[in-house]
C-alpha cells in the first residue's frame, strides 16, 4: 500500500477570517450553501465545527459523479485557521478508487482583503498504486472548487457576513 499526498495553494480575494468563517469554521452553513448553490444540494452537520464534527454534503449530479461527501473533523485550530478532516466519498469513480482520504486546509492572510487557502490531500488507493497526475488534480480541485465558489459569492455579496 502506498500513502500519497498532493498539495495546492489557491489565492482568494477575500480576507482570511471571512473565508475561514464561511467555509471551514462550522456552525451556521447558510452562507456556504448559498455560495455553493448548484454544487451542493444539501448539507447536514452534527457538531460545532470542532474535532468530531461530522458533515454530510449531497453533491449536485451536474458537478460530479460523486453523490455524497461525508467529512469528520479530526482537528481544528481557529486561531491558526487550520482544519484536518477525513472524508468518505459515496458514489462515482473516486469512491471505488480511494481507500482513505484526509485533508488539511490552512487559510493564511495574503495582503489586505486577500488570503491563500493551502490544501494538502493525503490519500491511499484501494489498489495500492498512486493516482495519476490528472486524477490527483481532479481530487484536489474538487476542494478548490468549493473555495472558489465561496470567494465568488462573498465578492458579489460583500456585506452579507458580519
From TrEMBL:
Task: Please give one Pfam family short name.
Answer: Bet_v_1
Instruction: Give the UniProt subcellular location, in the record's own words.
Output: Nucleus
Q: Which CDD domains match?
A: Bet_v1-like
Q: Where is the Bet v I/Major latex protein domain?
A: 3-156
Subcellular location, principal: nucleus
GO cellular component terms attached to this protein's record: nucleus
Its domain of life reads Eukaryota
Task: Report the sequence similarity comment from the record.
Answer: Belongs to the BetVI family.
Protein name in UniProt: Bet v I/Major latex protein domain-containing protein
Per the UniProt record, the source organism is Urochloa decumbens
The taxonomy runs:
Eukaryota, Viridiplantae, Streptophyta, Embryophyta, Tracheophyta
Amino acid at each position: 500500500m502506498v500513502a500519497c499526498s498532493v498539495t495546492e495553494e489557491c489565492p482568494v480575494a477575500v480576507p482570511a477570517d471571512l473565508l475561514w468563517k464561511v467555509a471551514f469554521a462550522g456552525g451556521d452553513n447558510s452562507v456556504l450553501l448559498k455560495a455553493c448553490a448548484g454544487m451542493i444540494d444539501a448539507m447536514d452537520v452534527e457538531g460545532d465545527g470542532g474535532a468530531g464534527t461530522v458533515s454530510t454534503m449531497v453533491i449536485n449530479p451536474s458537478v460530479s459523479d460523486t453523490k455524497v461527501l461525508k467529512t469528520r473533523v479530526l482537528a481544528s485550530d481557529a486561531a491558526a485557521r487550520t482544519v484536518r478532516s477525513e472524508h468518505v466519498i459515496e458514489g462515482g469513480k473516486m469512491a471505488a478508487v480511494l481507500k482513505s482520504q484526509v485533508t488539511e486546509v490552512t487559510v493564511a492572510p495574503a495582503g489586505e482583503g486577500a488570503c491563500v487557502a493551502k490544501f494538502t490531500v493525503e490519500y491511499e488507493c484501494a489498489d495500492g498504486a498512486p493516482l495519476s497526475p490528472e486524477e490527483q488534480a481532479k481530487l484536489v480541485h474538487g476542494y478548490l472548487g468549493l473555495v472558489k465558489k465561496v470567494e465568488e459569492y462573498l465578492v458579489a455579496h460583500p456585506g452579507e457576513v458580519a
